[in-house]
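Hi everyone, sorry if this is the wrong subforum. Our group has a chain we'd like a structural model of before ordering constructs, and none of us has done structure prediction before. Sequence below.
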Amino acid sequence: MKTVIFLGLLAVACAAPQGPANEPIPIVRQESQINPDGSYQYSYETGNGIVAQEQGELKNVGAEEPAIQVQGQFQYPSDDGGNIQLTYIANENGYQPQGAHLPTPPPIPEAIQRALDYLATAPPQPENRK
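Answer:
Right subforum, don't worry. Here is the predicted structure as tokens:
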């Protein structure tokens, strides 16, 4: 039994975040709250500049399958000395991240945009049923 406990503590020590020269990175701030209604929130900050926070709550609680809605953000120092920041929402529409560092799609060509605009205002066409 003592061997199992020792191995567990050894695994935790090896898995702890490491900084330069394998020094542990301190947790500067940490808060967490879990509520009986299923909502929660947490936040933390580490000694190497990582900051994160998140809130979540159940939506449509009376429905057969309640959904959870989550929103949060995190940031960390980049290799070039800047700061990477990401905000996100996750709900029935999926995971929706936003951040200046994320790639963006190219703009829609003008001719295609005109066609899409026309189709959006065109009257509905009768369906061909077979």
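For your construct planning: The two ends are 73 Å apart (CA to CA). Residues 1-7 have pLDDT under 50 and may be disordered.
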